[in-house]
Amino acid sequence: MSTFDSLIQIIEMIEPRAEHDHLGFTVHPLPGGEEVGWIGRNTHCGVAFLLATSTERHDHPAISLPLLRVRHGVRVSIDDGDTHEEIVSLLECLAKDNATIQLFIRAVGGVLVDGTPADQESLGEVVERLLDLFREYSYAGDAQILGLWAELLLIAHCPDPPRLAHHWRSHSRSRYDFGSESERLDVKATTSVQRQHELASSQVTPPPGVAAAFVSIMTEQVGQGTSVGTLWDRVLALAPDSQAKIDAECIRTLGRDWQMARDISFDMAKALSTLEVYPVGDVPQIGDLPTGVIRARFTSDFNLGQTWRGDPPTPTGLISAALACTGSRSQ
Questions:
Q1: Domain identity same for 150 and 273
Q2: How many CB atoms lie within 10 A of CB 322?
Q3: Which of 144, 262, 311, 326 is the most exposed place for a label (fewest CB within 10 A)?
Q4: Are 174 and 310 members of one domain?
Q5: Shared domain check, 160 and 302
Q6: Domain limits at 106?
Q7: How far apart are CA 195 and CA 289, in angstroms?
Q8: Dihedral pair phi/psi, residue 180, rounded to 5°
């Protein structure tokens, strides 16, 4: 059983006591024992990590967000069969829904829960990770939600999910969803009856020596389909080394209503049956931009384009992974 699964089981068994105030917790020791700290809860939070840390962190400012609170040098009352007081770094998830609690435990456990006490560097890393996940974001539009769903679908159904997840959204300004040194891949999804997608002029002109392709997916939003949350969780399980990035990108894309957006569902069978791969040079596109025009966006009718023919640039590259998803339809 993984550390994450064991922590989920522990927190599900902890019953908070009504008599506890904001600084009283029913707890269970973390791996490594009390020298590392405790995981616990009270009636005011969904889950908390109480970390035994050195005093050098205790004068750092507190962090308070709608779903997250971090404080250092806090005197708490701990109930682990006996009641006693400890001074800890206190990391609290204030939400009580399962999805947010699991996200919080993954974020903290991925850095700290290895059986050793938290030092200044590791505690700083986990606080930065929590801030990245729990800060306020804007609301996601329909196109952003569909785009994320389609990208997760491709990762989940390709032959090598860890590899594709590693190359997913490498940096925020990338023109493509997936990128390696020699290949680029961008996922386009639509709920229209026409295979038409919006492109940026920069996407059809990859760097010299780089092979690039579009993955085109057609689907429908349905009430009983495959949800964003289902694919999110599946990709987390398939690519455990990329869990921090997967969580961060999903939260960043879905925005402040990410818990509700997790339940939005699309038709996976239709998506997989319509998945096609197109070289970026073989879809309708505008020609050279007029002088003074730096970039442009346009809608391309992929029905007039040409799907990928022949072998991929490399047998284990990004484009090969996408082409394998088209081949899976006949298997």
A1: yes
A2: 25
A3: 311
A4: yes
A5: yes
A6: 3-134
A7: 24
A8: -125, -175
